[in-house]
Amino acid sequence: MPFLDITSPTLLLNTQVCRANIKRMADKCKRLGVGLNPHFKTHQSKEVGNWFKQEGVERITVSSIVMAEYFADAGWDDITIAFPVNVREMDRINSLAERVKLSLFVVTVESAISLSTLLKHKVEVIIEVDAGYGRTGIPVDITDRIDKILGAIDAAPQLSFYGFYLHAGHTYDVRGKQSVADIHQQSLSGLQVLRKRYKTTYPHLKISLGDTPSCSMLDNFDGVAEIRPGNFVFFDVTQATIGSCSFSDIAVVQAASVVSIEPSRYEILVHAGAIHLSKESMLMETNDGERDVYGLICQLSHGSWGEPLEGCYVRKVSQEHGIIRMDKSLFGTFVVGDVVGILPVHSCLTADCMGGYLTEKDEYIRMMNWRR
Ligand code: PLP
Q1: Which of 64, 93, 294, 329 is most enclosed, with most CB atoms within 10 A?
Q2: Which atom belonging to ligand 1 lies closest to the Cα atom of 229?
Q3: Looking at ligand 1, which atom is closest to the CA of residue 42?
Q4: Got the DSSP string for 269-333?
Q5: Nearest CA to 55 among 19, 92, 87?
């Protein structure tokens, strides 16, 4: 019986929901005339990657050299590593650049110079910029740093300048379409100023951006050549709370066995802890006030699952343990030996913890062998 026979912590994947998520984003890009260069760090699986291929996707984005190698082995030949280039990995970068069209993120003049001296094959360089997230990327108004990087790129025959990229990860800190749109507008404005400044010297420069909240909710991508969202392939509780999706669009659920029940606290203990779900939490309003929540609870059925159960949530995780606080009225729903579904707070991290998926057709999909 798909999903109900599991014995140990297992990440369930509803392939129909997942493929619908992929198709929705691909259709939107076609409608808006924007390229889709999806980030594959969420699913990390060549099987799931093939579903993108079937929607016409030809170029992909990843977050590490090992992921780039994995997808190159799976036949992808146009790959961006969307993480500031790590010059200590130059041997592997060189080998990869020999067999695929490779694009690299550069955010410092030092790494641009290292690429120019150590790289033996052609790569495209994307300068990552920042309009307010504050994680990585050159602040859009610090153009003298951009100029220096461009100088290093121009001086190296094997480097060509692709354009600017911006990941507005701070859309995760807000709720609702208008707040996401405000951040997105800031990103677009920053990128447009840069394009205006550099387009005479680099007439082919492209701008791209990508975060699931903006790319799922908004339609204004004026001047953007391509978008690179990733999480939308599965979505999760965070995205549903921001407003990027509904709960029924979430394509993965952690299945966990009930191993103990504590009636005095209306709690159940399940076998799904931090090593299965990750330790990512989000502040949510619960029956107990505002709390850190590590997942929402749903009931599993043959090959699918239901909406989150009102008032039930993962209150705490330790390495193997997950403590679920139940709404009093639903306390009898699960007994020892049952299997519970946990909608993840952050599906990228949960998937990375689990290494593979069990589908509603009872087939197991392996992810890449990570951390090599
Ligand atoms: N681009 C970069 C540079 C990222 O780091 C990420 C995710 O962390 C993405 C794109 C995809 O964004 P999302 O996870 O919101 O889909």
Answers
A1: 294
A2: 16
A3: 14
A4: EEE--HHHH-S--EEEEETTEEEEESEEEEEEETTEE-SPPTT-EEEEE-SSEEEEEPPGGGGGG
A5: 19
Q: Residue 220 carries which DSSP code?
A: -
| Bridge partner residues of 103 (DSSP) | 80, 124
The Å distance, Cα 361 to ligand 1 centre, comes to: 29
Report the separation in Å between the CA atom of 133 and the middle of ligand 1, taken as the mean of its atom positions.
12
Contact 25, 36 (CB under 8 A): yes
Mutate to test the pocket of ligand 1, among 211, 241, 349 (most ligand atoms within 8 A of CB): 211
CB-based contact 157:120 (threshold 8 Å): no
Nearest atom within ligand 1 for CA of residue 135: 5
Query: Which residues, other chains included, contact 258 with Cβ-Cβ below 8 Å and sequence gap of 6+?
Result: 268, 269, 270, 334, 335, 336, 337, 338, 339, 340
- C-beta 210 within 6 A of ligand 1: yes
For every residue of 186-202, DSSP letters joined together read HHHHHHHHHHHHHTTT-
Sorting pLDDT into bands at 50, 70 and 90, what band is 4? confident
Helix, strand, or coil (residue 222): coil
Give the dihedral sign, CA 210/216/220/222: positive
**Distance from the alpha carbon of residue 325 to the mean position of ligand 1, in angstroms:** 31
Q: How far is the CA of 267 from the centre of ligand 1 (A)?
A: 35
Q: Is the CB of 229 under 6 A from ligand 1?
A: yes
Whether this model's pTM surpasses 0.90: yes
Q: Is the pLDDT of residue 372 over 60?
A: no
- Cβ of 208 less than 6 Å from ligand 1: no
Q: Measured from the CB, is residue 231 less than 6 Å from ligand 1?
A: yes
| Closest atom, ligand 1, to C-alpha of 232 | 16
d(CA 276, CA 281): 13
Q: What is the per-residue DSSP string for 44-72?
A: --HHHHHHHHTTT---EEESSHHHHHHHH
Strands 267-271 and 321-325: antiparallel
Task: Please name the residue that has the structure tokens 């997950």.
Answer: 322
Residues 88-98 have pLDDT tens digits of: 999 999 999 99
